[in-house]
Structure formats: C-alpha cells, structure tokens
Amino acid sequence: MAVKLAVGNLKWGAAPFISQYSSTIPQAPGVYMLMLNASRVIADEQPWAAIKSPLYIGQSRNLKRRFLDHVENKSTVARYLEKLPSIEFCFAPADLLQINEIEAALIQAFGPRINRVQPAVIRARLLDPIKI
After folding, report:
1. CA distances from 69 to 4, 52, 75, 102, 113 (A)
2. Cα gap 21→18, rounded to integer Å
3. Contact at 8 Å (CB) between 101 and 37?
4. In this predicted structure, what is the pLDDT of residue 112?
5. Under 8 Å CB-to-CB from 116, ≥6 apart: which residues?
6. What stretches in the chain show pLDDT beneath 50?
7. Is domain 2-124 in CATH 3.40.1440.10, yes or no?
8. What is the pLDDT of residues 48-81, one digit of tens each?
9. Residue 66 has what pLDDT?
C-alpha cells in the first residue's frame, strides 16, 4: 500500500480546529489532514488503516503557522469548512525533503474532496459549503 510506505513511522497528532490549541502543534515541517474524528485515527496502532475520508490534505514548512492560517480563516479552505462541526487538524511532522512525496501519496490514496476542487470553485462556493 503506497500510503503505508509514504507515512511510514510518522507520529500523528490531532488538535481541535480552534486557535487555542495551536500550542499543541509543533513549528516543524510536515503533512496534515483536515478531517472529522481525527483523534480516533491517531489512537489507532495503524493510522493509515483507520483514515476514512479526510476533507483536505496539505503540507507545510511550519505546521503551527499553517494551522493558524486555516483556523483564523486566512485560507480559502478554512472559509469553505467553517460551518462544519468537529473538524480536527491531524498532523505529522516529517522531513522537509519527504513532505511532497507523503502529501502526494495521501492525496492519491484518499482523494479528499477539497483537494480535487479548483481554488476558484471553492471561492465561488463559499456560501454553499459541503454537506456531510
């Protein structure tokens, strides 16, 4: 399974999608997923097997800064998701040289809805958020 190889032994963490939790997120490069029930995923011994349907997968040179960008609605993705309850930021610090490969494997494996939508389409549909 490509995602298992890409994820390897990454240590996953999760934080509620609320700015007060930014202190729990490292200022390190890594990959992240915006998803529902992320806490259940990171508690699993094999997180790649527990991941069901992330809403968005991304990467960042600074996970903490990217978390705050999303939470404070500075990103188009965050504005698109703001009406959904219980979103969590599931993250894994990773080597800067590997985050592109890991992100691509995760996107290919799970095909998150928002990653498949063009940014202009997201901006146009901000008043019509996705329904779960």
Report:
1. 28, 25, 6, 21, 20
2. 6
3. no
4. 85
5. none
6. 122, 126, 132
7. yes
8. 555 667 888 999 999 999 999 888 876 777 767 7
9. 92
Predicted confidence at residue 46, as pLDDT, reads 56
What are the extents of the domains in the chain? 2-124
* Contact yes or no for 43/72 (Cβ under 8 A): no
| Two structure tokens written together for 75 | 């990103």
Both tokens assigned to 85: 């309850």
* H-helix segments, the chain: 2-7, 38-43, 47-50, 63-71, 76-81, 99-110, 113-116, 119-124
The answer to whether the beta carbons of residues 16 and 88 sit under 8 Å apart is yes
